[in-house]
Amino acid sequence: MIYFLAGVAAIAGLLFGYDEGVIAVASPSLQSSFPMSAFEDGFTTAAVPLGAMLGAILAGKLTERLGRRLVLMLAAALFALGALAASIVGSIAMLMLARLVLGLAIGVAAVVAPLFIAEAAPLRIRGALVSTYQLAITAGIVLSYLTGLIFGGPDTWRVMFALGAVPGIAFFIGLLFLPESPRWLVLKNRDADATASLRRLRGTGADVAGEVEAIRANVFAEQRTAAHAPGVLAPWVRPALIIGTVLYFLQQLSGINAVIYYAPTIFQHAGLDGQSTQVMATVGVGVVNFAVTILAMTLIDRWGRRPLLIAGFAGTAATLLLIAVAVVAQDVFPSWIVVLALFGYIASFAISLGPLPHLMMSEVFPLSVRGAGMSLSSVSNWGFNFVVVFLFPLMLATIGLAGAFTLFAVVCLGGIVFTIALVPETRGVSLEEIEGHLRAGEPLNTLRAAKGAPIPVAAGAP
Ligand code: BGC
User: Is residue 180's pLDDT more than 80?
Assistant: First the structure.
């Protein structure tokens, strides 16, 4: 049952990726139905992250009150309705509204789905199950790009948007068969329901009394700490907040979603002729992103966070600068150089800047403020996602592709400095040790795993 639950909840990741990526391949046919200014183009595309930012703000309160499953069902219904609405609209304004609604569903689901998995999963496989969600995002991006290969011609954007309703409906139906999170049920003093839920999750006949006891003890301990501990803005929590929010700032300002949302346009600006060639290259971007994310999942606990981040920032900065130069000197550099460099950029992102901010956000916050800290970090993620996606068409129209990519490269270089100066190495360090370090007021970047300590499974949710 737990694998079924993780599979269903991961559909939310698939939808997240699908709705991010679909605009890239739907854009040409959309432009022929509704010719758009750079401002309208930017806003239509950026309506999803804008809605998601609002969703992330609402998600915490909603799920505390209504539970994980019901909130996800509401999000699934919004997903399906938003996708269908986006496919039948007759004006740009209506399309923006439909994408805003889709974004709202994504923002809520992006906080609640991983939380649902993490709370229902047995400790020993929690990290792996949470990472599956992350992988589902990249799978959704590939799927959306593939629809661009399969469907072509005028008005195909309607089919592409409508297809997003299929996983939305599957998500809703799957949720009907799932039990509520046992942890939330205990929080609501419904221990009998929590026992029934755990029995279904762990299989018939499983003795779950001990686990319910442990959850109950944990909830008590958390409530006690929460009553005494200062909030997420307290000075001793600040280093964690800086890691959570700045890593997302860097992730987004590395320009990733300029690429994910506008890949065919980028290839066009780089001189790659023919719409189908551009879509093929875009599918390549999606596949590299997906494949390298699998590799990253195996390296994160072996190589550690800091080396991967430094390598990732160096790789993204170098490839962005190479693309900028190749675009300015198009008569010297053939366009396949840009395609290769963009694949290199995506690989550098997926090995580090993609998964690590999500993982580290779940590691650095003290238990009592983890929910609030993750919510604030998510707002930083979606807020900067919105800024980049909204401004990118305007940047193309003003400073051009080379100018935009040079700016992103400068941010990535700043990322190296930030990592060296402030990012802790949390590999092999328990969450309690991280919290102890914060409480003692010691700089986070002096954290080190104790020699010979076992490497723990990544805990918590992105
Ligand atoms: C980011 C998304 C991005 C995706 C690309 C995620 O880690 O948060 O904004 O679109 O990676 O794979």
Answer: yes
Q: Residue written as tokens 């403020």?
A: 369
* d(CA 354, ligand 1 centre) in Å: 6
- Mean pLDDT for the stretch of residues 52-58: 91
Phi, psi of 401 (to 5 degrees): -60, -45
Residue nearest to atom 6 of ligand 1 (CA): 354
Residue 310 has pLDDT above 80, yes or no: yes
* DSSP-derived secondary structure letter, 368: G
Q: Which burial class, exposed, middle or buried, applies to 347 when counting CB atoms under 10 A from its CB (0-12, 13-18, 19+)?
A: buried
What is the per-residue DSSP string for 181-208?
Answer: PHHHHHHTT-HHHHHHHHHHHH-TT---
What is the amino acid identity at position 381? N
Residue 33 and residue 175 in contact, taking contact as beta carbons nearer than 8 Å: no
Using a pLDDT cut of 70, give the percent of the chain over it: 94
Q: Are 459 and 127 in contact (CB under 8 A)?
A: yes
In angstroms, rounded to a whole number, what is the distance separating the alpha carbons of residues 353 and 249?
A: 11
Residue 132 CB less than 6 A away from ligand 1:
no
Is the minimum distance from the CB of 138 to ligand 1 under 6 angstroms?
A: yes
Question: Quick check: CB of 378 below 6 Å from ligand 1?
Answer: no
Residues above pLDDT 90, as percent of the chain = 45
Span 262-292, pLDDT tens digits: 888 888 888 888 888 888 899 999 999 999 9
Measured from the CA of 289, which atom of ligand 1 is nearest?
12
At 23, is the pLDDT very low, low, confident or very high (cuts 50, 70, 90)? confident
Q: Residue 133 in contact with residue 113, Cβ under 8 Å?
A: yes
Question: Taking 50 as the threshold, does the pLDDT of residue 460 lie above it?
Answer: no
Choosing from 256, 259, 293, 384 the residue with most ligand 1 atoms within 8 A of its CB, the one to mutate for a pocket test is 256
Cα 161 to middle of ligand 1, angstroms: 20
Q: How confident is the model at residue 43 (pLDDT cuts 50, 70, 90)?
A: confident
The residue whose CB lies within 8 Å of the most ligand 1 atoms, and thus the one to mutate among 48, 248, 257, is: 257
Please write the tens of the pLDDT for every residue from 326-339: 999 988 888 889 99
Single-letter amino acid code for the residue at 447: L
Q: Which residue has the tokens 């509401």?
A: 74
* Cβ atoms within 10 Å of 170's Cβ, excluding its own: 16
Please indicate whether residue 380, judged by its CB atom, sits closer than 6 Å to ligand 1. no
Beta carbon of 381 within 6 Å of any ligand 1 atom: yes
User: Vertex 384, ends 46 and 423: CA angle to 5°?
Assistant: 150
Residue of 133, 251, 390 to mutate, ligand 1, most atoms within 8 A of C-beta: 251
At residue 462, does pLDDT exceed 60? no
